[in-house]
Design goal:
It is a single chain. By secondary structure, this protein is of the alpha/beta class. The chain folds into 3 domains: about 150 residues, 3-Layer(aba) Sandwich (Adenylosuccinate Synthetase, Chain A, domain 1); about 90 residues, Adenylosuccinate Synthetase, subunit A, domain 2 (Orthogonal Bundle), CATH 1.10.300; about 160 residues, Adenylosuccinate Synthetase, Chain A, domain 3. About 35% of the residues lie in helices and about 20% in strands. Strand 19 and strand 20 form a beta hairpin. The longest helix has 22 residues. The termini are close together.
Amino acid sequence: MPSTVVVGAQWGDEGKGAVVDIYAAEADLIVRFQGGNNAGHTVFVGDEMFAMHLVPTGILRGKTCIIGNGVVVDPQGLVAEMRDLEARGVKVRENLLISENAHLVLPYHRALDAAEEAGRGASAIGTTLRGIGQAYADKYARCGIRAIEMTQPDLMRQKLAANLAQKNALLERVYGCEPLDFKEVYSEVAPACEELAPLVADTPVIINRALDEGKRVVFEGAQGTMLDADFGTYPYVTSSNPVAAAAGVGAGVSPKRLDAIVGVVKAYTTRVGAGPFPTECPAELAEKFRSQGREFGSTTGRPRRIGWFDAVVVRKAALLNGIQQLAVTHLDVLDQFERIPICVSYRCDGERRDIFPNSLEMLARCEPVYDEMPGWGQDTTGAKSACDLPPAARAYLDRLAHIAGATLCMVRVGPRRDQTIIVQV
């Protein structure tokens, strides 16, 4: 199919970067459509690990990559990421474009993020403190600065000065913080903007032209469905829409041009930061997952919270995204367990509930209802095909695909590229 959308069907960190990397091998164009450098996509090339934040993972395949208009771009962060990749032999500037309409994350956004998160006290959301939400807020308040302004330094300077005056008033009068100095802020931002300006382009024209020519395009999402600003566990969510429907808006293509939707799930569940997590495991059990599954945030390094697979969550994600194909990652982490629980529903106020509630107050009263499946107790990391997997592992995968109402298309049994099982669909 010409276009494929890859989205997370849990709370993010499902392994989307590695899945996109596999699809990128046969693709012509990879487009990131939302989020900012609060995202972290980890890809192993051989034994070498790459943690991507803004640059689409297709860059490691030497493919043309686009940062879409739905992404918020930290110029300093992007330049640092590019230089790091280039120092490791990756060709970035030759293969990367930035949408003219993408909004910028600037130093005052990070300052406000830190001040607002500190002000929440015990109700802190657990943001990455990178100013992502504040940049999106400016976008919708119609005072944001876009990537196209990086090509117009005088206009950039003018808008930066006007915005900083407003943000300093907030920092001083509302949060009691020191104001930011314009000269210091401009001297931080201007060199990065100058370096990125040649990469700025009218990217929807490029993407649509590629689709017209029958080229293969992969749309890369960040975070996960349960962190969606509209459909996730609000307010413990990200500041954008990680669902598949956002791919069209965030890249500049008609939804009619989105052919296949691939949902990515871990064989269990994780989340980072605060917020409800019905299947969360006790600390000792979580550590068994964490050490085997490398469960630390790619962006923050924070240990991820761990839980058993939650079918209620994935059913909601399947409904919202229209998932057609399912990619399951981290199956090998379950090799160590004799019995594997799956949360099939919740019990709330004495009644079974199959639908994930939108009310956090109701969710707090929900308890997971588990159905156990037998483990397989064998090392799966060397499996090259589905036939190489133990029967119990295949049964588990079939159950997950059934829950999602999708066809299993890929299984990951380790971090390396060659630990990917492609299932014919």
